[in-house]
Amino acid sequence: MKTELWYKKLGYVENPFSIKPAFFNDEVVGYDAEVDSLIKKLAKGEVCFLEAEFGKGKSTIIKYVINEFVNHNKIIHISRNKSDRALDYENLLKEANTGFGKVFGLKAKKVILIVDEVGKINQKDCEQIEKFMKSKNIFSVLFADVSFAKTNLTDSLKKKIDKNLIKLKDLIPNDAVEIVKSRISIEGIISDDLIISIFEKSKRNTRSFLINLEKVFRYSFDNGNQKISSNDLTCL
């Protein structure tokens, strides 16, 4: 007989601690100021860089940005972490178009370009991006990676970024509590102190924190418990 998944025992269809941004598009706990700044800058046609260590919420923020602009601008979201060869941005702009514009092979206008994981970006990429910014096809650009200093962006693009470098700070324990309460609403199922303990065991990394929460909840409810206790943290 198949064992019922722990979260379904609590009435949830999906794992409430999923690390996939698609499940919690609007969750940017602890980064309100950074996200507001980013949205305002992109809306003005600026070039920005989002710097964040792996697991700190970069993908969630990118998903939020896409949702914020998708009804007003065309979005091109790419990664540049695999091939050394530059991408064909002219073709990307054509593919981003809709309707007759796409049928006739016209390049989209007012596009917001999001380039995640820019480790393999090169001079040709940068030249094409600037070319299509000048022609107004690309309206604004968001680069994202773990380090701005280590990117291969040209000096010209770095100058455009200038003060638009947004670094994600570490979350604090209160943010961890807010994340849990935004995802699971059953009163008294876990104390704030235990949430903070799991957060600290996760070295304050959001991705690791969510993974560990799922481990603790699964361990506890698979063992027939009704709420989380300190004993459940032994599974970590």
State the gist of this model.
This protein is an alpha/beta fold.
Strand order of the largest sheet: 2-3-4-1-5
- Helix content bin: 40-55%
Beta-strand portion reads: 5-15%
Number of distinct helices: 10
Biggest sheet character: 5 strands, parallel
> Would you identify the CATH architecture of the largest domain?
3-Layer(aba) Sandwich
Pairing-aware structural class of the strands and helices?
alpha/beta
Count of the separate structural domains? 2
- What's the SSE pattern? HHEHEHHEHEHEHHH
CATH fold call of the largest domain: Rossmann fold
- The CATH homologous superfamily of the largest domain corresponds to P-loop containing nucleotide triphosphate hydrolases
- CATH C-level class of the largest domain is Alpha Beta
Q: What is the alpha-carbon Rg in Å?
A: 21 Å
DSSP E strands, number: 5
Keyword list:
236 residues; alpha/beta; Rossmann fold; 2 domains; 5-stranded parallel β-sheet; 12% strand
Characterize the structure shown.
The protein is an alpha/beta fold. The protein folds into 2 domains: 32-167, Rossmann fold (3-Layer(aba) Sandwich); 171-235, Helicase, Ruva Protein, domain 3 (Orthogonal Bundle), CATH 1.10.8. The protein is 42% helix and 12% strand. The chain has helices at residues 6-9, 32-43, 58-69, 89-96, 99-103, 123-134, 155-161, 173-183, 192-201, 206-222, and strands at 47-51, 74-79, 111-116, 138-145, 165-167. β3 (111-116), α6 and β4 form a beta-alpha-beta unit. It is elongated. The protein starts with 5 loop residues before the first helix and ends in a 14-residue tail after the last helix.
